[in-house]
Amino acid sequence: MIDWRKRPEVQWAGFALVALALFALPFALAHVGTAWVRIANFAILYVLLALGLNIVVGFAGLLDLGYIAFYAVGAYAYALLAGPHFNLHLPFWIVLPIGAAIAAIFGILLGAPTLKLRGDYLAIVTLGFGEIVRIFLNNLSRPVNITNGPQGLARIDPFSLGGLDFSRNETIAGVLVSGPMKYYYLLLLVMLALVVINVRLQNSRIGRAWEAIREDEIAARAMGINTTNMKLLAFAMGATFGGVAGGMFSAIQGFISPESFVLVESVMVVCMVVLGGMGNIPGVILGALLLSFVPEILRWTVEPVQTALFGRSLVEPEVIRMLIFGFALVLVMLFRPAGLLPSVVRKRELAERAQ
Amino acid sequence: MDIFVQQLINGLTLGAVYAVVALGYTMVYGIIQLINFAHGEVVMIGAMVAFTVINALAAAGMPPLVVVLIGTGCAVPVCVLVGYSMERLAYRPLRRAPRLAPLITAIGVSIILQHLALLVWSRNILAFPQIIPIRIYTILGATVTQVQLAIVAICIAMMGALAALVYRTRLGTAMRATAQNPQVAGLMGVDINRVIAFTFVIGAALGAVAGVMVGTYYGVAQYTMGSILGLKAFAAAVLGGIGNIPGAMVGGLVLGVVEALGAGYIGELTDLCHVAGVSSWLTERCAADGHFILFGSNYQDVFAFVVLILVLVIRPSGLLGERVGDRA
Can you state the angle between helices A281-310 and A263-276, rounded to 10 degrees? Predict the structure, then answer.
């Protein structure tokens, strides 16, 4: 049998097909409803987060349960520098890098004191860090109002470049392109960039150093790897990804509050990474897409199905949605403990342990 | 001074509850190195079941203590069942899986339990009927209720019983052997599966009692109460050195006291009006308001985590923990 995947022209045709599908997707979704374009946008945001967390958890093996804090830092940085709260309206291409840099600093702030911690101790400290950031965001409205507390920040500037405003609908060449669709393409570009960075990192000197640390920290140090710097770098890189995603979230949503950055969100991103297959980039993307789309699909189907079966809505759709979600997490892990698309290393480890 | 004693008493009460919940985390961790994220939900279910029973019997004219005991008596078996089944269905099949896989199933179990509780007991905050007439004693200018005293006493008794079980019985020896090395313990004739299941059962029973105590102490229960309580208790377990039973007790008490004292004093400590002279702007603000408090008592939850992080930075394996090698 011919292995079609090895033929370059087949590969290129495949790429072209995927690219075409991704390009056409928002138009198809807009046909169903603009809400779905938004859902796709949030799914891509989660892919960005999952890719960022994958650096920390998947590559370097540091379990981070407070990852959403960096997302929050990026989001608040954007909202404060490009919004009415301080009456600053800097353009996004200045604010996004600033937000990413601040998030990176927070990453190092978290990383530095936790260098000596391992495994589950690290998990609880990162979790605590995430909670601390959220509590501060919630309370920094007094005595000096910085974050506006639980009310959050509203009327955040959308992205705009020259005359192109990302929040408005426009008709280009007779086709209606809505605001969310513009963001979709932008997000797609950012995602592509982050995927490339992730892939390049994985096979680089840095990526291999991370893998060595993940497998055995003492051996890695003995091999001459500067584990301190490498771990800090992993935290900083992961945080940067989170910061960028947070800034974009701020702009797309136009409103943020501490509610968006609760522990459950961190846990959700960890689930995406582990469920998809940590350390494996396609797996992580799949995990993020599944965990963001499946609940939405359930949201739209649970209610009609109930009405069709029993004639009325017996149980709140939200409850059923979360129950199915919980069972799905358990079942997927029971049947595929290394994730849906496990990385080669994990697969091998699992096979060894089973013997 | 009386504020100090008052917060110390409140902190010890809360800390005793944290300690009992933390025992559930630490025992499971010590034996199979799993963070049982769903343990907080077990505590919540304990509180909820007790609420239902106490509510139903409140008007029956029985003595209040008997009603609470019956409530606890119903909560414990339910929680034990929940604890046993989650071990059997969600964790046991994953013993040989990568470390993070059972963590995800634990999160899944936690979501399932929370929403099942939502289905049964609704979203509302449930108010426990106040059947116990509160009696107040005064110690050194601070007040303490008999409920607080009872909570501390019960917690100490349970911890004592657990210590006796773990260090004085055959089963306890089997548990400690399994924690040290499951393979070798198995070769010595220990039925590992039974020991692990039993660990979950004990943890769940302790959690159920803790749930009842939290419910009667605060007088309310809600389906989300397990997550924050579980989080604090987990922090307490780590603070003491996870996997270490005396550590969980110490960690819980320390965390409770620190949190209560922190909440009581943080406002005064960060009142910038103590140093009002440093800037004219500050002097004006202080003259107008009297206080310029940087961090108020709503930062209470931060305290627990800041202390946890500080302790772990100085002692990476907790207050009483031993150094253990592990991997994510």
Answer: 110
Percent of chain A with pLDDT over 70: 93
> What pTM did the predictor assign?
0.85
Which structural domain, as residue segments, surrounds residue B44? Answer: 2-266
Which residues of chain B neighbour A283 with C-beta distances below 8 Å? none
B275 lies in some domain: no
CA separation (Å) from A69 to A109, A124, A238?
A: 12, 14, 11
Where are the extended beta strands (E) located within chain A?
82-83, 88-89, 160-161, 164-165, 170-172, 175-177
Query: Does the residue A131 lie in any domain?
Result: yes
Please check whether residue A61 touches B, CB under 8 A: yes
> Per the domain annotation, does B194 fall within a domain?
yes
pLDDT at B327: 37
The answer as to whether A278 is a domain residue is no
Residues of chain A with Cβ-Cβ distance to B299 below 8 Å are: 135, 139
State yes or no: cis peptide before B77, omega within 30 of 0: no
| CB contact set of B46 (below 8 Å; sequence gap of 6+) | B75, B76, B78, B79, B207, B208, B209, B210, B211, B212
Closest CA to B22 of B289, B324, B245: B245
User: B16 CB contacts (<8 Å, ≥6 apart)?
Assistant: B151, B152, B155, B156, B252, B253, B256
Within-domain flag for A91? yes
Do the bridges between strand A160-161 and strand A88-89 make them parallel or antiparallel, or are there none, so unpaired?
unpaired
Closest partner residue to B107 (CB to CB) among A120, A139, A267 is A267
* Residue A248 within a domain: yes
| Cα angle A325-B21-B47, degrees, rounded to a multiple of 5 | 70
Half-sphere exposure for B257 (CA within 13 Å, toward CB):
12
CATH of the domain at B44: 1.10.3470
Q: Which residues of chain B have pLDDT under 50?
A: 325-328
Q: How many domains does chain A have?
A: 1
Q: Exposure string (b/e) for A170-198, b if CB count within 10 Å is 16 or more?
A: eeeeeeebbbbbbbbebbbebbeebbeeb
CB of A165 less than 8 A from some CB of B: no
Q: Is the pLDDT of residue A105 over 80?
A: yes
How far is CA B240 from each of CA A229, B12, B43, rounded to the nearest angstrom? 29, 16, 20
Q: Is pLDDT of A338 > 60?
A: yes
Looking at CA atoms only, how far is residue B132 from chain A in angstroms?
34
Interface confidence: ipTM more than 0.95: no
Number of domains chain B contains: 1
In one-letter notation, the amino acid at residue A44 is: I
pLDDT band of residue A346 (cuts 50, 70, 90) is: low
What is the residue whose two structure tokens read 């759709």?
A317
Q: Which of A278, A282, A258 is closest to A269 using CA atoms?
A: A278
